[in-house]
Amino acid sequence: MAAITPELSGTYTIDPAHTRIGFVARHAMVTKVRGSFNEFTGTVVIDAEKPEQSTAELAIKVDSIDTRNADRDGHLRTNDFLDLDNYPEITFRSTSAQLVDENNAKLSGDLTIKGVSHPITIDFEFEGAATDPFGNKRLGFEGSHTISRKDYGITWNAPLETGGVLVSDKVVLEFEVSLIKNA
């Protein structure tokens, strides 16, 4: 089992080629739609000896949203949802970190969507550390958190004839993160 140990401390950059920032929402009350953002940048500072001093920052490009359906992606970019024209980025900036045990951490911070910020806490599981063939030290983490899109002013919906609504209020944010240690 992997463990977060002192030699892993340092500053890391999120590797966009090996990281997935995704989401899941219920559609028409009967199925789930999954999507992801293909463009983002981020930095993580890990202090294994003083985990509370660890930090993370993430900036996601709204126009990179990808649900494998161009019409839906276009609608999600409008003011009905993410309002790309006025809010081109979704951001997360940590405010605290806690090492739960050698394999699990809680990262709290402010998530900003459409100019509205709310505190969230993401539970992360440490997936391991490795040195890749190019000599880069890599760390892997996976986590998720459920938000209410209404909390961020995203209220568009359509009623269904059978009852319920087209898009769920609850959205699960998914993070599958590969970090590369800075030189």
UniProtKB/TrEMBL annotation:
<comment type="similarity">
    <text>Belongs to the UPF0312 family.</text>
</comment>
<protein>
    <submittedName>
        <fullName>YceI family protein</fullName>
    </submittedName>
</protein>
<feature type="domain" description="Lipid/polyisoprenoid-binding YceI-like">
    <location>
        <begin position="11"/>
        <end position="180"/>
    </location>
</feature>
<dbReference type="InterPro" id="IPR036761">
    <property type="entry name" value="TTHA0802/YceI-like_sf"/>
</dbReference>
<dbReference type="Pfam" id="PF04264">
    <property type="entry name" value="YceI"/>
</dbReference>
<dbReference type="InterPro" id="IPR007372">
    <property type="entry name" value="Lipid/polyisoprenoid-bd_YceI"/>
</dbReference>
